[in-house]
Structure formats: C-alpha cells, structure tokens
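Marked as duplicate of an earlier ticket. Keeping the data here for the record.
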Amino acid sequence: MTIQVEGNVRTRGSLRILMIAPTSFFSDYGCHVRILEEARGLQECGHRVVICTYHNGNPVEGLTIRRSLGVPGVQRAVVGSSRHKLYLDVALTARTLGTALAFRPDLIHAHLHEGALIGGALARLLRKPLVFDYQGSLTAEMVDHRFLRPDSLLYRPTALLEKTANCAADTIITSTANAARLLVERHGMPARRIRTVADGVDTDRFRPGLLSRAERDARRASYGISPERKVIVYLGLLAPHQGTELLLEAARIVAARDPRAFFLIGGFPGNETYHRQALALGLGSSVSFPGRIYYREAETFLALGDIAVSPKLSETEGNGKLYNYAAMGLPTVTFDKITNREILGDAGVYAATRTADDLADRLLTLLARPHEAARSGLAVRERAVNLLSWRTRMKELLSVYDQLFASTPAPLAPTGRPYHGDAPYIGVHSEGDD
C-alpha cells in the first residue's frame, strides 16, 4: 500500500500506533469492545499497537498494554463519569508520555475526550498526527449519567473542555453517522475533519447455532429457565441511560400477558439493585440477573435468547450491543432512533416511542408471531455478515490513516524503526495472537 506525501510516493509498511484509553481497559462493555477489536484488527493487518490505560482492568492476551501507576483506594473498574477520573488521568498522562518517548509512534489514536486531550498535547510534542475515536458527547454523557446538570455551574467549563478535545485531533472518527452530524451541527466542527468508522462484529464468532439443543437447555436451566420459556435476552451496561428501568417495566407488562416470557438480563453495575426492583414488580419467576458476563463468553450467553432487546436512551452514543445481537441472528427490539436504524436498518423491530408500553408491545408481537420473528432474525444476520463485520471496519480505519498521512508533511510519515520495549511499565505485555 502506498501513500502520496508532498509529491513523493512512500511505502507505508507497518505503522506504530499508540492508543490512549482513559478507562479501566479491559472491562466487559461497549467502548472497551471497540478498543479491543480495533487493536486486534490493526495487529492482524501487520501494525504494532501499544495501549496506554488505567492501572486497573483485565489483561488481554495478545495485546501490549501499558498501565498507569496505581491509585490507592481505586481498584474496581471505573465505569462512566466519575470524580476518580481526575487523578486517574494525571497518572495516565505520565504513563503515556513515558511510553511514547520509548515507543516513538507514527500515529496517536486516542479514545474518549480525556484521551484526546492527552493525545493532543503529545501529538504537538512529538509532531505526530492524532486520531480521536469519538464515542459520544462528553457533556451529554455526563448529563445522561446524572453526573452533571445542564444548569450547573460546571456545565459551561465542561463544554469548553469538550470543544478543546474535539479541536485537538487532526481527524475525528465517529461510531455513527448521527454523531458526525451532531459534531458539525451542534459543535461547529468542520465536516472535512470527520469520518465515520462504525462499530463492528466478528460474524464468525457471533453466529446462530452455536449451541446444540441439549447444551442450550442445560445452560438455560442453570439460570432457572425451563424449556418451554421464550427468552428475551439483554447484554450490556445496566444504567438509567441504558433504559434499564424501562426494560423492567416493559418486562412486567410482557410477563403479565405472556407467561412464557423470561427476561435474561446480563450486565453490570447495579445488577443486585435492579434485581430487587424486578422482585418488587412481581417478576421473580420471569427474570434472571446473572451479573457481569465476560466478553469472551458473550456469544454463548446470547445464544440462550430467542429475542434480543436494547432500550438505550442516549441520543449521542452508539449502541454496540446491537451488532452482536444481529450477528447472532436474534430478532431485535429497540427504540426508533437514528443511531439504531444506522445499525439494523429495516431488519430491526422498533418501538415507536420511548416508553415501556411500546417496548412491551413490540416484544409481545414477536412472541405471538414466531414466523415474523424468524424472518427478522434471518434479516439481521444477513445484514451483519454483509455490512457490519470488523473486516469491513478495518478497511475503513486504514483508509482514514492513509488519508491522514497523505495530507501530512513528510517528517510525519511512518518511520519503521524497531521498538525494543525497553521502557519500564506496570501491567501486561503479552505478544502474539489471541
């Protein structure tokens, strides 16, 4: 593959990519899956990736991970907005700087707004291009997570910080076209600096027919599900902005009208709290909250479902779980939002309004019409294979990189220098393929 730089043709070869992930990587939810699959995909394409992240998180075989120094009292994964991020990001900045000076990257790929701020300073210091992997508005996310109010004194400074992060990057990649549109219309970002590289799914790993009938029945029984039940499965974060309360209210309506329905709700945090809410709604015999499901086990968990559901409410974030649902061939009920239609197209089953009543109505329709559910499952699987695979996404991401280098002065082209890994670090350093 070649790139044109100031009239000279250069062979790109292997890129050295420094990823910045200001989160407790790896944890088993949304943005972590994108970071993981992008890093794996880039490595499979022959590029070298080093990930700088917080001190806590699960190791991942096959990835080179540099962890920041530990912070006393913070051992659990930090999910979403948190005051702990203030000093976690200071520690991460120090780790990222030390790693960059040793690794000497050709390109910096930053995730989340804190990553873009750290990466922006580093990119100017090293004179290297910065890609910002944008996964939703910072201020909108903090409002969704009830960490910030629009009338708060901190709202304007936070919005300014978000704008600074957005402007730090040479190129912003968004996980949805809707996010790209909002960046232009609401945040005034120039469209020429924004590209959409959607999430994806491994359609070989996530596929229908993973379990035999006997295996499926046995696994269902371990969650208290008898063979005649129809399982509505959810796998993701449990939180207000994910619509968890709405899901429970819809479950109450569905269970009252169709006793076969059983809701298998996997995820964290707060699964114990939501389980108590479900019991208070009289759902004790119609729901199970198994808690955190490891990403490495996600496909066998989803294989237990007959129908999948995602009541996510956020307007600016993507909805990565829909990709896995689709690849599994699960008829999927979700709210009628631009982001969801980008992913599922006409193959999705959409609740017209963001209410428990409409969500329940769509679920009950699929339960009552198994042939319609089967057609929907076939349609989403076909869409996943043809349009939503990570193979396609890697081509799109590398196209962004090519375009970035093509418009960058010659000194910023890939160096191809060997990396000997001589910088001290805390965390995981494992080589080879997963």
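See parent ticket for discussion. Confidence is low (pLDDT under 50) at residues 1-11, 409-434.
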